[in-house]
Design a protein that fits this description.
This protein is α/β, with parallel strands linked by helices and 349 residues long. It contains twelve helices and 14 strands. Strands 3-2-1-4-5-6 form a six-stranded parallel beta sheet, sandwiched between helices. Strands 8-9-7-10-13-14 form a six-stranded parallel beta sheet, sandwiched between helices. The chain is globular, with a radius of gyration of 20 Å.
Length: 349
C-alpha cells in the first residue's frame, strides 16, 4: 500500500509568494502532508510568515535539518522558466535518495532521466515521480468534447502564474458542496500533484496538446456533470501562448473564467508586452474560442495578494463595475460570486 507522503519541499532561495508555485499550492491545499521547506534565505521562519498561510510549517536551511523532520519524500517546490533543475540540486536530490526519500518533481528536466539519480533510485529502491512526464500515446484533438453532456469551464488569464489553478481548486469544493458532480482536470504539475491525476500539457509535443486536453475532459466528463479545466499561460504570452490555445481548442469550454492581477500591467519577464484593459482582454479571449464553440467569460477571479485590504476591495469593485461580471479574489475573499456564476451557467445551459 502506498505510504502517505510527508513532503520536505525543496525551494532553496526561491520560497515566496510568486517564486515557488508548486510549494505554495501544496502548502495551501495539502498542508498535512508537508513537514518543512528548504530555503537558506528564509530559514528560521514559518510558511505563514513567508506566504501568509501555512501555519507553523518550518523553513530550514539544509537537507540535514529537514531530515530531522522525518519526511518520506522530497518535493521540488519551484517551477523555473524552462523547468531545469539547478546543478547543485542534483547532488542534494541524490543525498535525499540515499536517505530513501521518494522524489516528486514537476520540472521539464525529468529526474528519472538523470543517469546518476536513476541509478541511485534503483540501488535504494526509491520511486521517482516526474509529474510532467506525459502519457506515451496521445491523440490529436478533433472536437470529441462536443459529444459529452458535461459543462466545461476553463480558467484563462492575462498572464502566467496568476491564479488559474488556484481559482479552480477554490471553486471545486464549493460546487461539490452544492451537490453538483464536479471534477478538476489538472493540466500542470502542481494541479497533478494535488489532484492525483492529470497531464502536464506544457510537456506534450505541440501537435498533441489539444488531444491531451480533450482526453482529460473526456475522462472527467465520464464521472461528473461539471468539469473545471485548469488553464495555462495567456493568449498574448510570447513564450507560452501555444499551450493556452491548445487547451482552449482541445477542451472546447462552454464558458471561461478570467484570472487577472490588478497590479500587473505587463507580462512577467516580457515587460515589452503590455496587458490590455481587462474588458478588451475578455473580448479577445471570447473571440479566440468562438470559431470552435462560443465560450463567454462568466466571471473574474482576481489575485490581490500584493494589495492592502482596502485596495483589494476597490479593485474587485472596479472590475465588477467595468466588466459587469461577478468578480472576487477567491482566496482572499468569499469565492461565492464566481461559484454562483459557474453553478448558474451550468444549471441553465
Amino acid at each position: 500500500m502506498p505510504r502517505s507522503p510527508r513532503y520536505l519541499i525543496l525551494a532553496d532561495e526561491n520560497f515566496g509568494p510568486e517564486t515557488s508555485k508548486t510549494a505554495n499550492a501544496c502548502i495551501r491545499y495539502t498542508p498535512d502532508h508537508v513537514v518543512g521547506v528548504i530555503d537558506r534565505r528564509q530559514a528560521g521562519r514559518t510558511a505563514q510568515q513567508v506566504l501568509g498561510f501555512g501555519g507553523a510549517i518550518p523553513v530550514v536551511a539544509t537537507l540535514d535539518e529537514g531530515l530531522a523532520l522525518k519526511p518520506n519524500a522530497l518535493l521540488i517546490g519551484i517551477a523555473p522558466a524552462g523547468g531545469q533543475i539547478p546543478p547543485d540540486w542534483v547532488r542534494l536530490v541524490g543525498r535525499a535518495i540515499e536517505h530513501t526519500l521518494e522524489i516528486w518533481s514537476g520540472l521539464h528536466s525529468f529526474i528519472g532521466d538523470i543517469p546518476e539519480l536513476a541509478a541511485l533510485a534503483k540501488q535504494h529502491g526509491v520511486t521517482i515521480h516526474d509529474l510532467r512526464r506525459p502519457p506515451a500515446k496521445l491523440p490529436v484533438s478533433n472536437g470529441r468534447v462536443r459529444e459529452v453532456a458535461a459543462t466545461v469551464v476553463l480558467t484563462v488569464g492575462t498572464d502566467c502564474n496568476i491564479g488559474k489553478m488556484t481559482t479552480q481548486l477554490q471553486l471545486l469544493g464549493k460546487l461539490r458542496a452544492r451537490g453538483i458532480r464536479t471534477s478538476f482536470a489538472a493540466t500542470g504539475q502542481t494541479g497533478i500533484l494535488i489532484e492525483g491525476r492529470g497531464i502536464g500539457v506544457d510537456a506534450v509535443v505541440a501537435d498533441f496538446i489539444g488531444g491531451a486536453a480533450e482526453s482529460l475532459v473526456l475522462e472527467c466528463a465520464a464521472e461528473s456533470d461539471l468539469v473545471l479545466v485548469e488553464g495555462q499561460g495567456s493568449i498574448i504570452h510570447p513564450s507560452y501562448s501555444g499551450v493556452t490555445y491548445g487547451l482552449l481548442h482541445g477542451s472546447l469550454p462552454h464558458a471561461q473564467i478570467m484570472c487577472a492581477q490588478p497590479s500587473r500591467t505587463a507580462i512577467n519577464r516580457c515587460e515589452w508586452v503590455k496587458i490590455p484593459p481587462l474588458v478588451d482582454f475578455i473580448r479577445m479571449s471570447e473571440a479566440a474560442a468562438a470559431p470552435l464553440r462560443p465560450a463567454p467569460v462568466i466571471g473574474v477571479a482576481l489575485n490581490t495578494y500584493d494589495l492592502d485590504e482596502a485596495s483589494a476591495l476597490r479593485a474587485v469593485e472596479t472590475v465588477h463595475r467595468e466588466t459587469g461580471l461577478p468578480t472576487t479574489d477567491p482566496v482572499r475573499f468569499d469565492p461565492a460570486p464566481v461559484v454562483d456564476a459557474s453553478a448558474r451557467f451550468h444549471e441553465t445551459r
